[in-house]
């Protein structure tokens, strides 16, 4: 006589307490329902497979019921509700902490980790201001060169933070990109290099940290050089031209410009002067060292950025060459330092088309206080840091959020804007008398630099 196998209902204890009965799934059809002794080997194998499938279906249904109960409990807890019953036995939670429910597979349940949004504490009105962030190399575009990956990480962590240092590092990385580039068959360098090779490098660097103005100017010049090549220009000739352009740019617009600016600024330091500066800027430091080398005897008053502390390094550097230094760790001593100074020497990140200064946060306070005290405010800046297209009258249009000083309660801006009326003059590498020009004259300087026949 044939027998029919059945599966008993399964009892599952829900997280709310009590037990719930899950009906067993119907038996799937088997190869035969006769006595197992009467089945052939093929029929026995089919029957075993069917029984295994039935058991799997039962386990899945049990898991679905338990998951639905857990979700209901989580929703109730989120709304502030309390459980309406005690759980009995080993599944109850102790008062000292929650216990994990064992899984049917014997493995611990996975824990969902939600990454914290670093911009969650920034108000909506400041949401347009960018912030540097580390981009995992695994998430970078496949065409990003290893040298550019390294530079991007260094910029994101502020290991390279000065605008000219970032510019030089970027150009040297692009040099390696050009050296390793090979034009695909059927393409030309003038049409393929910028969209398919150069742009992915630029996009990655911009994601790591917003591009500084000198980088933007240099990249535009490099792209213009690529577009100047004829479509039939041999690859080696074009690559050699690009490498030569980068080398010439670094020599003239960075190395030589730095020397000329420091030389022109050092000429304006006289014996007995007390020069006030803010933080540590590469051009200002080089100016002080060159003036001391030329035999000038003067003092330096340093007001430091309380977050960066670069002024401490500048003070040590100047003391080593015999320059007397007055050091203030923050803006608390601003008035006393301004009264003691004969003039003010400041560095900057960029100068906008309307003559406004884009510099480290705190620079505007120095310039305003010095102007109100009738002190000269001289700014040192390379022409590659001039922005001829944008204007700025406040610090909220173009800025960055400091990732190291960004919490759920507050955040800090890296830069501020100093209006041109608080700047006495700008010293650039462009030879114009003493090299000291009004801040409003940057457009005329750029035009004359590009075409020496133009009268500024």
TrEMBL record:
Annotated stretches, region: Disordered: 1-110
Keywords: Cytoplasm, Initiation factor, Protein biosynthesis
Superkingdom of source: Eukaryota
SUPFAM superfamilies given in the database record: NagB/RpiA/CoA transferase-like
Pfam family, one: IF-2B
Record-linked InterPro entries: IF-2B-related, IF_2B-like_C, NagB/RpiA_transferase-like
Compositionally skewed regions (Low complexity) per UniProt: 29-45, 64-78
Compositionally biased tracts (Polar residues): 90-107
One GO term describing the cellular component: cytosol
Keyword Cytoplasm assigned: yes
A single GO molecular function term of this UniProt record: translation initiation factor activity
Residue spans of biased composition, Basic and acidic residues class: 48-63
Subcellular location: Cytoplasm, Cytosol
Keyword Membrane: no
Assembly with partners or alone: Component of the translation initiation factor 2B (eIF2B) complex which is a heterodecamer of two sets of five different subunits: alpha, beta, gamma, delta and epsilon. Subunits alpha, beta and delta comprise a regulatory subcomplex and subunits epsilon and gamma comprise a catalytic subcomplex. Within the complex, the hexameric regulatory complex resides at the center, with the two heterodimeric catalytic subcomplexes bound on opposite sides.
Family listed: Belongs to the eIF-2B alpha/beta/delta subunits family.
Record's protein name: Translation initiation factor eIF2B subunit delta
């Amino acid at each position: 006589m044939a027998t029919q196998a059945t599966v008993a209902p399964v009892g599952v204890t829900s997280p709310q307490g009590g037990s719930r009965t899950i009906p067993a799934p119907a038996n799937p059809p088997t190869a035969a329902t006769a006595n197992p002794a009467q089945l052939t080997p093929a029929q026995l194998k089919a029957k075993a497979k069917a029984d295994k499938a039935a058991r799997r279906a039962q386990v899945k249904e049990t898991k679905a019921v338990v998951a639905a109960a857990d979700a209901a409990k989580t929703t109730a807890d989120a709304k502030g509700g309390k459980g309406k019953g005690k759980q009995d036995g080993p599944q109850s939670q102790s008062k000292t902490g929650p216990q994990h429910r064992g899984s049917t597979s014997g493995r611990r349940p996975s824990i969902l980790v939600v990454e914290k949004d670093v911009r969650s504490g920034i108000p909506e009105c400041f949401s347009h201001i960018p912030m540097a962030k580390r981009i995992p190399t695994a998430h970078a575009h496949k065409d990003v060169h290893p040298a550019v990956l390294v530079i991007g990480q260094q910029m994101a962590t502020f290991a390279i933070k000065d605008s000219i240092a970032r510019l030089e590092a970027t150009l040297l990385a692009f040099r390696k990109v050009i050296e390793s580039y090979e034009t695909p068959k059927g393409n030309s360098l003038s049409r393929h290099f910028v969209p398919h090779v150069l742009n992915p490098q630029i996009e990655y660097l911009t994601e790591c940290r917003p591009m500084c103005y000198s980088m933007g100017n240099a990249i535009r010049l490099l792209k213009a050089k690529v577009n100047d090549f004829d479509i039939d220009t041999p690859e080696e000739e074009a690559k050699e031209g690009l490498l030569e352009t980068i080398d010439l740019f670094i020599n003239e617009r960075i190395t030589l410009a730095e020397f000329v600016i420091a030389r022109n600024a050092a000429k304006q330091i006289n014996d007995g002067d007390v020069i006030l500066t803010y933080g540590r800027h590469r051009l200002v430091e080089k100016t002080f060292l060159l003036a001391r080398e030329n035999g000038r005897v003067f003092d330096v008053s340093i007001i430091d950025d309380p977050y960066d502390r670069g002024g401490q390094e500048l003070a040590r550097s100047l003391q080593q060459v015999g320059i007397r230094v007055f050091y203030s760790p923050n803006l608390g001593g601003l008035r006393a330092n301004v009264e003691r100074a004969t003039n003010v020497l400041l560095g900057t990140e960029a100068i906008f088309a309307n003559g406004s200064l884009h510099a480290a946060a705190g620079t505007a306070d120095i310039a305003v206080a010095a102007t109100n005290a009738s002190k000269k405010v001289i700014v040192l800046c390379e022409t590659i840091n001039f922005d001829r297209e944008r204007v700025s009258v406040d610090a909220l249009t173009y800025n960055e959020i400091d990732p190291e000083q960004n919490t759920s309660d507050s955040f800090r801006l890296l830069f501020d804007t100093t209006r041109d009326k608080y700047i006495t003059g700008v010293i650039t590498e462009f030879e114009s008398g003493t090299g000291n020009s009004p801040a409003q004259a940057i457009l005329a300087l750029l035009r004359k630099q590009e075409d020496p026949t133009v009268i500024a």
